[in-house]
Design goal:
Helix content is about 45%, strand content about 20%. With about 270 residues, the protein is of the alpha+beta class. The mean pLDDT is about 95.
Amino acid sequence: PEQRAIAHVLRAVQEAREATERVIAALRDLKRSLMRHLFTYGPVPVDAVDQVALQDTPIGPIPDHWRVVRLGEVVTTFQYGLSVRAEREGTYPMLRMNNLEDGRVTTSHLKYVSLSSTEATKFLLRPGDLLFNRTNSRDLVGKTALFDLDGKYVFASYLIRMSVDRSNIEPRFLNFLLNYAPAQQRLKSIATRGVSQANISASKLKIFAVPLPPLSEQRAIARILQTVDRKIEAEEARKEALMDFFKSLLHDLMTARRRLPRDFIAKFG
């Protein structure tokens, strides 16, 4: 009876984790659909798309009142990162390719570099900077993430820092746009292919075409997608918590460090 009760408890936690994974998958599908809608029609309700006049452009249909520009027209800085070997210790954490994940900068598996304050000043990231993965496998080249961390961070040579002209473009909007699947496909198409890696130079990035809505629409689009991202992050945190809980519960129940109540065993065993 106790075996059956333990199995029941563990299965319940597994089912909760699987349900959370389904929620995450549904939210990711929703985000893809929203991006397709927002980058084609703008921030209008689905039942109002017939009222949006579209123009055909080399990068696909967009609303008539949007413009197509080159990144070099709205990005003020394209800067390569540090060509310095990172170590386990140092004065400044250095962000690398693996720290760009789903449009976000993560601090997992950080490495560090030792620099003077004068050297570091040239490479210190500012909130709102975008990091672009210029060299990687074809599948991963072109990944982009928005830097929004507190603290002093520098970045590695395989990344390009893009600082934008905020009077023309909202960095959050540009981050979502560059991570949009059709934009990613176009970025990969301009990559120079090597034996095992692909590369997108800053010069190619400068002439990459993007749609430019009015700032108010850019901010509205960014807000909508950011809301979905926050929900995904919350569900991912719940999934991680359930996984940790399952592991600790499994250990405790299998070693008898934790015993189920007798009435529970009688009910489910």
